[in-house]
Design brief:
The complex is a heterodimer of chains A (263) and B (270). Chain A is mostly helical. Helices cover 80% and strands 0% of the residues of chain A. Chain A starts with a helix and ends with a helix. Chain B has two domains: 38 residues, no CATH class; 219 residues, MetI-like fold (Orthogonal Bundle). At the A-B interface, helix 1, helix 4, helix 5, helix 9 and helix 10 of A face helix 2, helix 5, helix 6, helix 9 and helix 10 of B.
């Protein structure tokens, strides 16, 4: 088992290396792909190092990253503050669901991005426009999964708690919210994925800093190497954030991780 | 007491009550909207147009050309770009997914490229697509492709990996060649999962299309919204947003309904 895993990792690394070599070969001076359309790997790396130290369109790369992270985490966090309690309440009191859900269903099919022009008109091109678009994008997974989490609570646990004399509030706080944790972690991951990808689009449309802003400017200035740096950073940060949420699952709801490992 | 009254009116089931509550809450929302705009003008029309204004704008865009095209024209252009993107994603994605499951070495080799498409959000590809293709159909189609491709590959791969080994062994015992086994046994068995992948891809692609059209292009529904922003016409934005939402729901419903005709054998299984 251990040996085949090592082999797998080695093969994966080998494949990455092979693709970098193919990439370098295709974009070599006088090669088949002009560097204007796709720059060579060493150019991208050099640009990455340079952008880390010197500002590109106003800020250094770390500052652009921080600007993007600030918007995405604020929108995502606010969506959690609204989505989790509302989702749990909607699943718990069906009348609340009957009242709120139709409006929610009406808004849901609209891609979050379609709200960008509206938020720009209403809120200007400041941070609040982007935060509210990210909020809308993240709210749907937060709310839907919070509802799902309550619905998936084992009936037996509820009955047991009730038999042992727990009242509604205790059941909600001690049984429902605890058993819902793994689903909420999944919700966090989905919401963050949606938020991150929506943020990139929002930054392309209206921003003064951030990775999407860097990407769209690089494209207009034909700085393809900067564009690739921005795209890679967007991808890597996305993976890191998803990974971090995976780690919090170990910490918040260790039993679910054990359960997953068993099968 | 609302419920008592509903029950007296013959609404007994939870479903009926939910519908009654829903209609009630939506009516309240609509009434608030009308009050805030046409009746009392709490909110200026340039910030929030009244329902009547939105309907008038709808009628206007259907009958009069907006930026050169009437609403159906914009819809057709959007559908065309989306169609090309999803079609290419399907044509490339299904074989790639099948071979990912069929041959692990193939997967190991292609995986880095796949992960690149999978983990970088489709919208991050917009600037690159603009750089490569300029303002053509290919630009938006590429963004749709990037959004649709991973779901198709992942679900095709899953479908093939889940085919019971005994089917494949049985086909082989009866003397079928690997190619014949793939076409006659593996693909039909994996089809439901592939179909699920297509369905996800279709709606992901629709979302991505809107983003791409907002950034680049001179026609399409996304462009219409962007133009509404430029002209500070919230009514135009509303028309665009409503059209996009309705088309999205329509497409998803059609795909869901078509499943029983495309995959009749699945009905038996489920």
């Amino acid at each position: 088992m251990g040996q085949s895993r090592t082999l797998q990792v080695a093969a994966g690394l080998g494949a990455i290396l092979a693709w970098i070599i193919i990439w370098a070969w295709l974009t070599r001076p006088g090669g088949p792909v002009p560097t204007l359309y796709f720059p060579a790997p060493d150019d991208v790396w050099a640009k990455f190092v340079r952008m880390w130290q010197r500002p590109y369109i106003g800020s250094t790369l770390p500052d652009h990253i921080l600007a993007s992270l600030y918007i995405v985490l604020t929108g995502w966090g606010l969506a959690a503050l609204v989505g989790i309690p509302l989702g749990i309440a909607m699943a718990w009191w069906k009348r609340l669901k009957w009242i709120v859900f139709p409006t929610f269903q009406l808004i849901r099919p609209v891609p979050p991005l379609a709200w960008i022009p509206l938020t720009i008109l209403w809120l200007g091109i400041g941070d609040s426009a982007r935060i509210s678009v990210v909020f809308i994008a993240a709210l749907v997974p937060w709310l839907m999964n919070s509802m799902l989490a309550v619905y998936s609570v084992d009936r037996l646990l509820l009955d047991a708690a009730r038999t042992l004399g727990a009242n509604d509030r205790q059941i909600l706080a001690r049984v429902v919210c605890r058993t819902a944790l793994p689903t909420l972690v999944a919700a966090a991951r989905m919401a963050l994925g949606n938020a991150w990808s929506t943020l990139v689009a929002a930054e392309i449309l209206a921003a003064t800093a951030g990775l999407g802003y860097v990407a769209v400017n690089a494209s207009q200035l034909l700085d393809t190497d900067v564009l690739l740096v921005a795209m890679f950073m967007i991808g890597i940060l996305g993976i890191c954030m998803t990974g971090l949420i995976g780690l919090t699952q170990n910490w918040l709801a260790p039993w679910s991780v054990l359960g997953a490992r068993r099968d | 007491m609302i419920e008592r009254r509903l029950e007296r009116m013959g609404v007994m089931t939870d479903r009926g009550k939910a519908a009654a509550y829903g209609i009630f809450s939506l009516s309240v929302l609509l009434a608030l909207w009308i009050c805030a705009t046409s009746l009392f003008q709490w909110i200026e029309p340039r910030v929030l147009p009244s329902p009547a204004q939105v309907i008038r704008q709808f009628a206007w865009i259907i009958t009069e050309p907006f930026s050169g095209l009437r609403l159906p024209g914009h819809i057709l252009f959007s559908l065309e770009r989306w169609g090309w993107g999803v079609l290419t994603a399907g044509l490339v994605g299904i074989p790639v997914g099948v071979f990912f499951a069929w041959n692990p070495w193939f997967k190991t080799f292609l995986n880095p490229v796949f992960e690149l498409i999978h983990f970088i959000p489709p919208f991050a590809y917009i600037p690159l697509a603009v750089l490569w293709f300029g303002a053509s159909t290919a630009t938006q189609a590429m963004v749709v492709f990037v959004a649709a491709f991973p779901a198709i590959v992942i679900n095709s791969q899953l479908g093939v990996a889940q085919v019971q080994k005994i089917y494949i062994d049985a086909a082989r015992v009866f003397g079928a060649s690997p190619f014949r086994t793939l076409c006659r046994v593996v693909l039909p068995a994996a089809a439901p999962s592939i179909y699920t992948g297509l369905r996800i891809a279709i709606s992901n692609g629709w979302m991505a299309l809107v983003g791409a059209e907002l950034v680049v292009g001179k026609v399409g529904l996304g462009f219409m919204i962007a133009q509404g922003q430029e002209n500070a016409s919230v009514a135009t934005i509303f028309v665009g947003v409503i059209t996009i939402g309705c088309l999205g729901v329509l497409i998803d419903t059609l795909v869901q309904r078509s499943e029983r005709y495309v995959l009749p054998w699945r009905r038996v299984a489920s």
